[in-house]
Amino acid sequence: MNPSISVIMPVLNEERHLREAVQQVLDQDYDGAIEVVLAVGPSRDRTQEVADAIAAAEPRVSVVANPTGRTPNALNAAIAKSSNEIIARVDGHAMLPKDYLRTAVETLRETGADNVGGIMAAEGVTPFEQAVACAMTSKIGVGNAAFHVGGEGGPADTVYLGVFRREALERVGGYDEHFERAQDWEMNHRIRETGGLVWFQPKMRVSYRPRPNARALGKQYFHYGRWRRVVARTHEGTINLRYLAPPVAVLGIVLGLVISPFFWPAALIPAAYLLAILVGAVLTGRALSGAALARLPLVYATMHLSWGTGFLTSPSRLSKPRPAGTDLHDLFH
């Protein structure tokens, strides 16, 4: 008999997509009970009314308030409200394959993992989004993270979204609400530090719509870099060369531009970076349309330099410890 699953969804300003997102979960090809817990933040649209209407019409759906509007708070509130031994995180814009939950449970059984997840399959519609999708599945764009670029199944540092054993979440106390971003990576680190296994399953392919323009993409990657630095301060020894490449690129370009008026060879540093992303775009964007390929160098530069700038300028105050007396485990006990 298959275990029952609680699907937790952090929801904010999702009036247009919420019904479809919930329905794709309820329609999963899974021979077992499914409940959906919607953690609704203070939205600017009719998300709350839509969520309440769905819950009133569908007994498998419940709603819990998330007054902060922050993702980790929403996830913890939904976990506390949920009742099943398997907990799956799903986001409002994620497009799941029909066998997503079934594959997850099978993988949990076969591997003994505490958390399994798959590929964040970026799929663009406009030329800019298509360029972002290409960059997000390229090692030039995001390094060698399996949940971006794919690969063989196996142990991983982190995975996209995640389907968890409840006992693992309770063991580590859930998501740390201090982390506005990078909360997935941070919690998966604690799962691994407490002896748990995080497993990448490439069959769990989730479609994702990239940011629609350079400004939105830059803001996204700036915050990724900023909060990844916070994780590094909190958990020493978790930074490798892949994470240091963008900040090194930013420093090199800035120094090259500043020094070049006085020492012209320094201009070779930003010139070399520009040449590298142009060549990289040609090599990785062969399948793109001309319009998307033309945008790919801009996308690579936006991702690299925004992430690197966020990492370098991440203020130390973001890493302040939680106030004395607080305990993540209090959320579940």
Automatic annotation (TrEMBL):
Residues 6-172 form the Glycosyltransferase 2-like domain. The chain crosses the membrane at residues 243-264, 270-294. Gene3D superfamilies: Spore Coat Polysaccharide Biosynthesis Protein SpsA, Chain A. Keywords: Membrane, Transmembrane, Transmembrane helix. It comes from the Bacteria. InterPro entries: Glyco_trans_2-like, Glycosyltransf_2, Nucleotide-diphossugar_trans. PANTHER family: GLYCOSYLTRANSFERASE, GLYCOSYLTRANSFERASE 2-LIKE DOMAIN-CONTAINING PROTEIN. This is Succinoglycan biosynthesis protein exoa. It comes from Acrocarpospora corrugata. The lineage of its organism: Bacteria, Bacillati, Actinomycetota, Actinomycetes, Streptosporangiales.
